[in-house]
Amino acid sequence: MKITDACIYPYPCGNSSVRRMALEARSLGFDRLVAPDTTPGQFHGIEVLNGIIIRDTMVKDLITRVRRERDGKAVVSVQAGDNGFNRAAIGVKGVHILRGIQSADKTAFDHVAARMAADNQVAVDIDLSPLITGRGVTRQRAIHRYRDILVLERRFEFPITLSSYARSVLEMRAVREISGICSLIGMDTPDVERAFTGIDTITASPDPAVRVV
Amino acid sequence: MGARPPTLREKRRYILVSVEPSGEIIDRKDLYFAVCDATTSLWGDVTAAVISPAVIASDGQYVIIRCRRGSERELSIALSTITCCRDRSIALRIIAASGTIDTLRERIQGLKIPDNVTVSAPEYMIGEKLYRVHNCSGQKVDVIEKGFKNTNRLFLTREDLEEL
């Protein structure tokens, strides 16, 4: 089980190279990073996985895109939309993470979507950036949405991932600091540990429906 | 109000933090306002008054911040939400907490390592822009775009510079 930051943006999206972010991640207590559109590899003892984030697309295009990426080892994420889109996205084989749920519609992720996420082992991502950089209403809304999601998570037990969305080494936070930040949304230490290892859960090969004895 | 006898004084805790990026000189007063702002924004006026944060001392990139005993957790969460100080992007990395300032001062002496500033070339061309090395510590190299206005800072490693 590796402690993973499920989304960072190294250079050119951000101002820090992937090596520098890996170096910083090691000192902050991480074992693995997911970086969109980055060559996967091992930097300073940190495993960097390639991530693909699909946003602003129709379900049909989403299926085509995911099918194209299925053979690779990339972590495929989909930006959350309305409720219908989210249910459809969760049902697509090959989708690993549903992101941006805090900025989606209030009814975008309900109990049906939660049950589907649990059945299909699709994680819901918790974006820590509104909790860290947000102030006032922005942060309050994010806390409210995450608390709401965690109620569903405790009931249906779908995977959760934690992402800093850091574009700089200055936006990265230590594992202990993230545990503190997650306590704001009602996550205790076992919840945070489970969320840090959520990538292992979603990228593990599923148990086969039929087992040859 | 006169000084109270030791048994009646409020118990304090001191938190040692490192200010990133290293090499930046941060004014203690500006940092105090950033800490107060973050604490008040996160916990509200009442809890901020209970925490009563204060920047006690600074030594290079290391800063000692005081709080009331029992409120270290709240303060450390608030510190992790600080992203800028007077329009400069910073991050505070919590290193240790202690009941005395002296212990943290000793800790700072142990943490100080001489910077290795041997870089093969002082200026580098990155994406059609010229950058000069600003700070260099171990594997970490910070470069700043040359110019007067809107100069970007990039956080790289020695390996990145070797590949250029």
Word description of this protein:
The complex is a heterodimer of chains A (213) and B (164). Chain A is of the alpha/beta class and 213 residues long. Chain A contains nine helices and eight strands. Helix content of chain A is 41%, strand content 17%. The longest helix of chain A is centred in the C-terminal third of the chain and has 20 residues, at 137-156. The radius of gyration of chain A is 16 Å and the shape is globular. The two termini of chain A are 29 Å apart. By secondary structure, chain B is α+β, with helices and mostly antiparallel strands. Chain B has two domains: 10-111, Ribonuclease P, Pop5 subunit (Alpha-Beta Plaits); 123-163, no CATH class. Chain B is elongated. Chain A binds chain B through residues 11-12, 15-17, 19-21, 23, 44, 131-133, 135-136, 139, 168-174, 176-177, 180-181, 183-184, and chain B through 20-21, 41-42, 73, 76-77, 80-81, 83, 89-91, 93-94, 127, 139-140, 152-157, 159-160.
What number of domains of chain A? Answer: 1
Structural class of chain B: alpha+beta
Order of helices and strands of chain A: EHEEEHEHEHEHHEHHH
Query: How big a fraction of the residues of chain A is strand?
Result: 15-25%
Low-pLDDT windows of residues of chain B = none
Question: Secondary-structure map with pairings?
Answer:
The complex is a heterodimer of chains A (213) and B (164).
Chain A: E1 4-5, H1 18-28, E2 32-36, E3 41-43, E4 46-54, H2 59-69, E5 75-79, H3 83-91, E6 97-99, H4 111-120, E7 123-127, H5 129-132, H6 137-156, E8 160-163, H7 175-183, H8 189-196, H9 198-203
Parallel strand pairs in A: 1-2, 2-4, 4-5, 5-6, 6-7, 7-8
Antiparallel strand pairs in A: 3-4
Chain B: E1 12-20, H1 28-51, E2 54-59, E3 62-68, H2 72-79, E4 84-85, E5 88-89, E6 91-98, H3 101-111, E7 123-126, E8 129-137, E9 140-145, E10 153-157, H4 158-163
Antiparallel strand pairs in B: 1-3, 1-6, 2-3, 4-5, 7-8, 8-9, 9-10
Helix pairs in contact in B: 1-2
